[in-house]
Amino acid sequence: MQVQTPIVVLGIDPGSEQSAWVLWDGKRVLKCGTSGNTVLLVALRGNAWGIVTIAVEGVEARGAPLGNETRATCEWAGRFSADENAQVIYPKDIRRHFCGISGIKRMSVYQVIEDRAGGKGTVEDPGPLHGIISHLRDALAVAVMAHDLLEGRTEG
């Protein structure tokens, strides 16, 4: 009998200079942080974490001209997703996956993920997602959705 290796997904919320990342095994955050893009890319190329899948949040068009920062973010998203084991997941698809509709606020997505994972907790009683704030939440949402899709789960 062969023991199945757990699926580990690295979710990335790319930025123009730094990106947030979360390693997710389907039940908990294994590691997370914010790193300079070049440092993160070197870690990915060396497969420093034994990652099975990389999931990168894609940049969606908003109907306005792109500024330099957004263009740089798009370029980094492309570099991170160039790996054969990588996929790009767009925010509207994340909202649809977790909440059933794409026209919903991101906070609703975060609430679904927190409920599934056991919550953030408090300073006195930290939960499994304690400290997952700001861009780390976006990286977590990407990782959780990618993990769900790999396991055949179509809704959050």
In the CATH hierarchy, what is the class?
Answer: Alpha Beta
Largest sheet, spatial ordering of strands: 3-2-1-4-5
Q: What is the CATH homology-level superfamily?
A: Ribonuclease H-like superfamily/Ribonuclease H
Q: How does CATH name the architecture? A: 2-Layer Sandwich
Q: What is the beta-strand fraction?
A: 15-25%
Instruction: Output the CATH topology.
Output: Nucleotidyltransferase, domain 5
**Number of separate domains:** 1
Radius of gyration: 15 Å
- The helix fraction, in percent, is 25-40%
Structural class: alpha/beta
Mean of pLDDT? 89
SSE series: EEEHEHEHHH
Gross geometry: globular
SS elements, strand count: 5
**Span between N and C termini?**
31 Å
Biggest beta-sheet profile: 5 strands, mixed
The poorly predicted ranges are: none
How many distinct helices?
5
Architecture blueprint of SSEs:
Layout: E1 9-13, E2 18-24, E3 29-36, H1 37-45, E4 53-57, H2 68-80, E5 86-89, H3 91-99, H4 106-117, H5 135-150
Parallel strand pairs: 1-4, 4-5
Antiparallel strand pairs: 1-2, 2-3
